[in-house]
Amino acid sequence: MTSNIAECINRHLVAARELPIFDFLEEVRKMFGRWNYNNRRNDILVVFEVFSICSQVEPSTKYLYTVYVEGRRFIVNLDNKTCSCWMFQIDEIPCPYAWAVIKKKNLTADDYCSELFKPHTVVNTYDVVVDPLPDEREWKVPTYLSEDVVLLPRYKRPPGSPKKKRDKPLVELLLGKKRHACSTCGQTGHNRHSCSNAPRRK
Q: Is 198 in contact with 192 (CB distance < 8 Å)?
């Protein structure tokens, strides 16, 4: 796997990959347990609330407001859940300028958030329980599994230690490869020893 999340998981499991399979799975379980616990405590609107502190709010109607921030102004429509910065309608959560209006009117921010960002929805995202593995002596293995014969792998593993770093794709190798210039003429593709512009010895 080469996605960002896969790269992140692989980076955290570099040391665990050296462990036996049972201990490796236990490390994976503990890692996801820690991540889920930390994500349950995050508040998605804290950052926007901080940015809204220095805003000046001027009402036009009971739902239309102008918010002044550092010489700029933004139009917030609470009725339509929109802002001239476009963050409100795109992200579907109050932007910093909408936050300033909501705080001035003592409203509840949850009423202006999409259901996807409501606390109960966010918590449910991390509600999957990663159960601890019981002690090996307490395992109840079905008979058809305990009597199953596990054959040797068809292919032998090559000699040497396994790679700890991933193999880079060809495109990444080509884009990342630096071509050094010749110290004599400054062109690439050769060095000073094979340069045709180098002074000839007599």
A: yes
Helix (H) / strand (E) containing 58: strand 56-59
Q: 126, 6, 18, 103: which is closest to 55 by C-alpha? A: 103
Burial of 163 (0-12, 13-18, 19+ CB in 10 A): exposed
* Pair 22, 136: CB distance under 8 Å: yes
∠ Cα 31 36 40 (to 5°): 150
Cα first-last separation, the chain: 59
- Domain range annotation of the chain: 1-41, 46-121
Listed in sequence order, the DSSP H helices in the chain are: 4-12, 21-40, 46-51, 87-91, 96-104, 119-125, 143-146, 170-176
* Residues 89-128: tens digit of each pLDDT: 988 888 888 888 988 888 887 788 888 767 677 677 777 7
pTM equals: 0.41
Q: How far apart are CA 199 and CA 202, in angstroms?
A: 9
Biggest distance spanned by C-alpha atoms of the chain: 93
